[in-house]
């Protein structure tokens, strides 16, 4: 009995997902479950930017994370779509907590908790992905486009993307194709392609990934999608 107990205790639980470069989905906002028709998502980018969905709209801002200590740099920029009264009220609470957040940490239950100075908190779970993609997404990595397109989901949109030279070819859900030229003079890990109406950003450090936005919307993280 003693030996069996020792063997069982030697098994280690899987390491929790890192706060940064993981897509998190909101489970509760100040103790309440998401309102019907809402969607809450959060991603801490390796470039010092957060982005996500605040219930009805998408948003983005700068941030600094030192251990569990979090500071979000105003202003928070987001879209201005209108949803139901319940969703908009919960969105206001969500953004108030995010804007004044003081801590962000992953607990032993693998849940991310973002807490404001008054103790109100938002609880997140790591986003689910299709089982045939779980291995690559677990590393927050995305293969880089080759001559064939890579299919990815960015927020509500599914895109087919191919990077070729200094342009990004983006095929939308309706089959239309956009060619986005790369911004000149960029240095560092991020490469941005835009035509002014839509923007695709490729990040190569610490791991490969993409973000996408239309117009002045905040850049949304992309994950691999099924063909």
Automatic annotation (TrEMBL):
| Keyword Aminoacyl-tRNA synthetase among record annotations | no
> What Pfam families does the entry give?
META
Q: Keywords assigned by UniProt?
A: Stress response
Domain DUF306 positions: 17-122
For the keyword Transferase, the answer is no
- From which domain of life does this come? Bacteria
Q: How is this protein named in the record?
A: Heat shock protein HslJ
């Amino acid at each position: 009995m003693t030996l069996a107990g020792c063997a069982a205790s030697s098994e280690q639980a899987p390491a929790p997902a890192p706060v940064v470069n993981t897509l998190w989905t909101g489970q509760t906002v100040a103790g309440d479950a998401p309102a019907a028709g809402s969607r809450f998502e959060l991603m801490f980018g390796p470039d010092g930017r957060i982005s996500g969905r605040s219930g009805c709209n998408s948003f983005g801002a700068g941030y600094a994370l030192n251990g569990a200590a979090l500071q979000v740099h105003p202003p928070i920029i987001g879209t201005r779509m209108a949803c139901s009264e319940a969703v908009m009220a919960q969105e206001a609470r969500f953004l108030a907590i995010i804007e004044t957040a003081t801590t962000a940490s992953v607990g032993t239950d693998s849940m991310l908790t973002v807490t404001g100075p008054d103790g109100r908190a938002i609880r997140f779970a790591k986003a689910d992905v299709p089982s045939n993609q779980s291995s690559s997404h677990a590393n927050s990595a995305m293969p880089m486009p080759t001559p064939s397109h890579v299919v990815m989901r960015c927020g509500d949109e599914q895109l087919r993307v191919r990077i070729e030279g200094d342009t990004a070819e983006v095929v939308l859900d309706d089959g239309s194709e956009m060619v986005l030229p790369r911004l000149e003079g960029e240095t560092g890990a991020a490469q941005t392609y835009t035509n002014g109406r839509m923007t695709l950003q490729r990040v190569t450090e610490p791991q490969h990934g993409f973000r996408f936005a239309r117009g002045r919307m905040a850049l949304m993280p992309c994950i691999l999608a099924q063909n």
